[in-house]
């Protein structure tokens, strides 16, 4: 029943979903999802730059993501960049990506369309096409990122919810901001090569957004976010098994979006009920 | 066919404009600069850059879906861009500008973008591999424009600008001070819906020329530069459109003579403008502080 592709996809997807669920929880809480989105596209420029200069694609991906993540921090107040600044920087980084693509395709004379294909493969990835070595790497990186997130959770939460008080209490708000950005960079670099930018964005936003709609308690929310991410990957890959010739990432994203829509409906109903109770109570 | 750049600028321009597609690209550049500039200025003011980027990205799977179904790419761009704009507008709480609403809105926007891209992945797979013009969908084909394209672009621009003229004042009010605007009877939520739809339509139309990824640069960069320079609406809009026009025209020439992609040349020039505006504001701020100290 389970072929080897699905097995490796499950391993890699689980690691990445765990990391994305935890990182994503804070991204949504800090309203920084755009940073994650921007970095997932920066990965594309990094990869193309590496291709153009003939170095390993992964080096370019990681270097690009982490560098730009730190740059976002430097441009923002206390390690949090403004959306407009992010927009400007990353629109230009995309432009640079096109430049490297031109460079790469001219060097590889004859294969005109490969730049476009390279783009689509970075954008959509192919979770069902990764090797077992890559899957183990993805799992290890995912687990390390998750562990670091758990260790930093308490101070980071404090710094997120009340920055000023946290800073007054001696929490290194700036350092945490940068550290968090580096972790986003690492997650984006790893996830975009293993599962593609699209799935990275979906796994960062949907489980965390759903968890935040369902519960206000932070640690329950973090756990739920990570759990939902893993469930998305497993159910999605299962669905891809049942419907032949459809991409696994499509199904994972469908499950994630459905769970987010359910959470949205749940929050609406609960809010409506709360409002009615509030009217009746006094 | 490309004679290369000489320092005889008049001859250069004459050479460049002897190509009909190049003339059309310059004409389209004017309309795109005005359209993206006006809409982008409001987008930057409302801090809705993430929504703008996501709506733009959904145009790409829209085009892929349309091509797969045998429809025109234009239909795909409009269908997906307007559809995602509507979903984002209707499902986000309130006017989408408050601090608490922002966190939820950013998750919603990301889910919409990722789901649209997932549909794109599905259509590419069903199409049996990669569409030949994926690259054009993403990065545009400014140099393959025809007269008809420019005419349609101009008509859409007129329609969008008419809507902006009708709602501009209320939209400005709702963007700058949502609480007071609401108290004065302006529906902040409805303004958000109207604006996102206008954004969706503009992005869909401009994407045909610039591609899904680079339309965002023309929306955000000139407007962000202008807002570093002035907070006044009319002056800001004029500066935005002027920057847009200059970077598009010079970017096209650079792309033509330097054999570069327009995506690279235009974003680089626009980013340079933004950096210059940013630096100017920093210097002006320092000077003002020093003058205040001296006094």
Q: How would you concisely characterize the structure shown here?
A:
Chain A is an all-alpha fold and 282 residues long. Chain A is 84% helix and 0% strand. Chain A has one domain (4-280): ABC transporter involved in vitamin B12 uptake, BtuC (Orthogonal Bundle), CATH 1.10.3470.10.
Write the layout of secondary structure elements.
The complex is a heterodimer of chains A (282) and B (295).
Chain A: H1 4-29, H2 33-53, H3 57-75, H4 83-107, H5 114-124, H6 132-161, H7 163-168, H8 173-194, H9 197-214, H10 218-242, H11 248-280
Helix pairs in contact in A: 1-6, 1-8, 1-9, 1-10, 2-3, 2-4, 2-5, 2-8, 2-9, 3-8, 6-8, 8-9, 9-10, 9-11, 10-11
Chain B: H1 9-17, H2 20-45, H3 49-68, H4 73-91, H5 99-126, H6 134-139, H7 147-176, H8 178-183, H9 188-229, H10 233-258, H11 262-294
Helix pairs in contact in B: 2-7, 2-9, 2-10, 3-4, 3-5, 3-9, 4-5, 4-9, 7-9, 9-10, 9-11, 10-11
